Amino acid sequence: MAHYKKYTVLLTCLLCIACSKSDFLDKKPNTNIVIPNSVADMIQLLDNQNIFRSNSASMGIMSGDEYYYASADVYHALATKTEKNCYIWSQDIYTGEIAIPDWNMPYQSIYYCNAVLEQWDKLEPEQKNSVPGQFVRGAALFFRGFSYYNLVSVFSPAYDESTKTTDLGVPIKESANINEIKQRATLGDTYSQVLSDLTSSIGYFSNTFPVQNRNRPSKAAAYALLARVCLSMRNYASAAKYADSSLSCYNKLIDYNTLDTTARYPLTIYNDELLLLNATAVYYGAVLTGSASLVNIDSSLISLFDSNDLRKPVFFRNETGAFIPKTVYAGSGSYPFTGLAVDEVYLVKAESDVRTGRLNEAIAAMNTLLTKRYKAGTFKSITQQPADQLLRSILLERRKELVWRGTRWTDLKRLNKEGANITLKRELDGKTFTLSPNDPRYVMPIPIDEIAISNIQQNIR
């Protein structure tokens, strides 16, 4: 596949950067691919944040309804056609642009994961069974599953059990063979790969949560990601199960009353709620840097926060009447955070519990979370209420809590499948642009350079 061939040289360069203190850079005959041979080398590669922290999807965020450009002039000055076209949901997003990060970066991560897994299989049993050796396999499986999920979230339709064998997923690569071309798997098979990788990873992680290194995956993080994936599949029973499993591993929440809400960065990197640090790669600068002069948070979203809700001053700052994101869990900058955190797990649990008839459990989860989010003494506990009313309340809190977290696009896709009937609208240059529920434009086109080399099937927009 095209992305694999591109990484023949990239692997050499990045491994040299990631592992400059190591001796493992041996070359395979007649190739430019270098292979990590020891457990320590594999860990160094998996710790490379340029590969595994910056590969989340961008186009869903750019196409979502959480932000708007400050002016038409800002829009017209955008650096790439992809940024412009995502904003107005054009049928042809790329208009000739190639090397699309949302496609290339996850496949780069998959390539490295496959290389590690192949070498891991060649280790001696004592190396495999060591604590570091077990972590290596778990981390490679975890990151591969996360990468496939990032791909399917933007390049495939929302999961539907009734059409999973005919809807298209993405090509599944389970080897580091750069010459192997794979066609697109079904959506069902792609999600099966994601679930298999993530569930398999859990058995290789220790029972200790890595408080001091939240760049690394763990049982709590793997369960949290499984909960996110199952929620996107509308498999609410499994989502609730995995959310409970994650919370049983780690469930610490921050009381926002303890934060300095006037600070530029109220939440620090590696804060207590963080399960796994990850952030969208800033390839499309205007949206993903959240610059005060370029991007504002949508006013209808801001209006959802009342005066006692501490999330408003923690998440946003007011710039002459327009709100822009501060930061969430990334600790600096204003770009979206797409990693895993405890608050999201509580919200997955609450929604899934309601949808599976466990109303008391859902209410308890919401009260546990929200009491930490409002000014002390102002939060009124949620009490027993009809399931549909409770679900609406939870979905509202989900939107408020997870703003600028990279989850909104998949939420829109799955909620419209549930009949939410959400229509997106933009105003630009006196024109109104709309995206109707379940529109084919919710699925991004496969990059044209990938089509040219691999001849895989294109999405219909």
Automatic annotation (TrEMBL):
This is SusD-like starch-binding protein associating with outer membrane. It comes from Chitinophaga polysaccharea. Gene3D superfamilies: 1.25.40.390. SUPFAM superfamilies: TPR-like. Residues 23-231 form the SusD-like N-terminal domain. Its main location: membrane. Keywords: Cell outer membrane, Membrane, Signal. InterPro entries: SusD-like_N, SusD_RagB_dom, TPR-like_helical_dom_sf. The keyword Transferase does not apply. It holds the Pfam family SusD_RagB. Belongs to the SusD family. GO terms for cellular component: cell outer membrane. Residues 344-452 form the RagB/SusD domain. It is found in: Cell outer membrane. It comes from the Bacteria.
